[in-house]
Amino acid sequence: MIPAASVPLQPSGWQQAWRDAIRDPGELLSVLGLAGLVDASDAACAAFPLRVPRGFVARMRHGDPHDPLLRQVLPLDEELRPAPGFSLDAVGDAGAVAGHGVLHKYHGRALLVATGSCAVHCRYCFRRHFPYAEQTAAAGHWAAALDAIRADASIHEVILSGGDPLSLATPRLEALTTPLARIGHVRRLRVHTRLPVVLPERVDDALLAWLSSLPWPVAIVVHANHAREFDVHVDAAMARLRATGATLLNQAVLLRGVNDSLEAQAELHERSFAAGVLPYYLHQLDRVAGAAHFEVPDAQARRLHGQLRTRLPGYLLPRLVREVAGDASKRPL
Ligand SMILES: *Cc1c(COP(=O)(O)O)cnc(C)c1O
Ligand code: SF4
What we know:
Layout: H1 13-19, H2 25-31, H3 42-47, H4 54-57, H5 68-73, E1 97-99, E2 102-106, E3 109-113, H6 132-135, H7 142-150, E4 157-161, H8 170-180, E5 188-193, H9 195-198, H10 205-213, E6 218-222, H11 232-243, E7 247-253, H12 262-274, E8 278-283, H13 298-309, E9 319-322, E10 331-332
Parallel strand pairs: 3-4, 4-5, 5-6, 6-7, 7-8, 8-9
Antiparallel strand pairs: 1-2, 2-3, 9-10
Bound molecules: pyridoxal-5'-phosphate (PLP) and iron/sulfur cluster.
């Protein structure tokens, strides 16, 4: 879904690329030479629509039904199988809403659900059932969200999240950060986004000008799960982001059939470092309904992380964590 207000009459390059995303599973499979070989699930697609930018599809291997990028976006019947322990609000978001679109779970940090829109729909998404319509700060509720942040002097870091906050047009981001800059106790800004990876066109001059104008140190956490998500366009986007002075970090989700091998993990962190991005978290999957087939058991996750420690320099080892509702931080495994 694209909120109408975020789309100007003359779409810029990235907005055109956004709109050109593939939304039809049949088209995706035929572009990849997989028509008739793989069954996409209409029912899963109806519950959570397919959406994937063409530039990301171009990085998938032609004719490979097990491609790790394809697996992240293709709706499958497995999503509809009931799985005990997998629920609609896996990380307790409903209990942490401190204002319109503001989630306050951890000391000093408030997360703003800036929009429900994403350029790509990830099948494992922990917010695939999130009530964005009620809880999105962008839907005319900036004032209430800002009030909630202003009222709590313990909040030193504001995290723009979503959905994908960079799916908002740049003037809307400015309209958020301008009043935020007047709140004295905010010292840092963080942006969690998959756009520089899945739609590197988004990193345009206007976005860079906005980032450069911000009065705080900025951390940008990109979400890449596999080394092959990087290509020359992504490298260029990361270089431009870094040139604004932002710190670039990567957060990945451990996903069965995508990145649950030592090779895949080592390559991911080496490749992202080559693009100027340091690993941050490797998340155990949030137990959200529809994603059970991606789960890697904890024992295997720990073993894999232990092996990774012997393979990579310390600075390329992500922290293996899980989000547990009610905890005061992400929980190390
Ligand atoms: C994950 C998360 C954060 C950020 O946690 P860090 O450990 O600082 O990365 C902040 N707020 C909410 C609600 C979160 O879910
Ligand atoms: S980009 Fe993030 S929020 Fe959007 S569907 Fe993917 S995992 Fe979910």
